[in-house]
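Researcher: I've been going back and forth with a colleague about how Na+-dependent transporter might be arranged in three dimensions. Neither of us has a model we trust, so I'd like an independent prediction. The organism is Bradyrhizobium cytisi, in case that matters for your notes. Sequence below.
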Amino acid sequence: MSSALKPVFALPIRGLTWLGGQGTRAVAAVVFIAAAVPPLGALLRPYVTEAILVLLCISFMRVDLAALYGHLRRPALVATATAWTTIGVPLIVGLIAHATGLTDRAPGLALALMLQSVASPMMASPALAALMGLDATLVLITLVTATAIVPFTASLFASLFLGGMLSISPLTLGLKLLGILAASLLAATAIRWIFGADAIRRHKQPIDGFNIIILVIFASAVMGDVVSDLVAQPVFTISLAALSFAIYFTLLAVTTLLFRRIGYERALALGLMVSQRNLGLMLAATAGALPPTTWLYFAMTQFPIHLAPYMLMPIARRLAARADTSSTAAAGETAASS
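Model: Here is an independent structure prediction for Na+-dependent transporter. You can compare it with whatever you and your colleague have in mind.
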């Protein structure tokens, strides 16, 4: 970069660095900014697909290949976690929706819940896990494997449970998901090849800051009508918000308990990943052609997605401290025995 251009880029980079350094506070603020400025949502809604592509690209270009290969050598845990998030969760949700008659009584909500369950984990999950001091590497490898197979599992469960509720066929849904993921991966690979992995690591905080800006764009696009919906139908809107929190923390708690044998710190990391579903990917694949209730539920899910990491920080810190204490004690016992 020439010396003449450096001052031009210095201020934006400093701003992005500061924003990236705010961690979970900035992530939590995103949802309130998006809800507070409804006109911004109307302006940005046509760009949901583009925002998702950028978020996916940022996540793919930051994959630590060495850590990825390390976990691939121990595939049992990753395979189990992948099966739970891509097969177990949508199968349970689909069966409950049909057993309770939700697909007939509230098809828009049933569609929202099924799309949420078949979605892959959010690409930001490893970064959120790292911000919370949890095992981001385990989250990353499970995220990669789950994302790789979600075009096929989503198509399968859409054909099993959604029937004619989707505006596109299950096969088209799978193909669109595959295309979006492939395009993001190719773009990320090109960026890594041009700039190098070292440069990407050095500029972690500015990239985090840019990621938060894209999150604002996406959240604003999804939440543009939240205030008007709250005024027009307050009980229904608040009920959907409560449901979104209940589902988020149920997935978090059940996953943490299922994987508790690997240690609660790592189990909580997996729980965070499973509860953070990539609804944006579903919006992009369906081109936003969804019923109003589905859109409103998706908007409500942004609250637990953005607030929960901040709320869970004290628990994560206690678990990390306990893990450090156990490691130190184990090391001391080993030294004493030798």
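Researcher: What would you highlight for our discussion?
Model: I'd start with this: Confidence is low (pLDDT under 50) at residues 1-5, 327-332. After that, consider the following. Residues 292-337 form the longest helix (46 residues).
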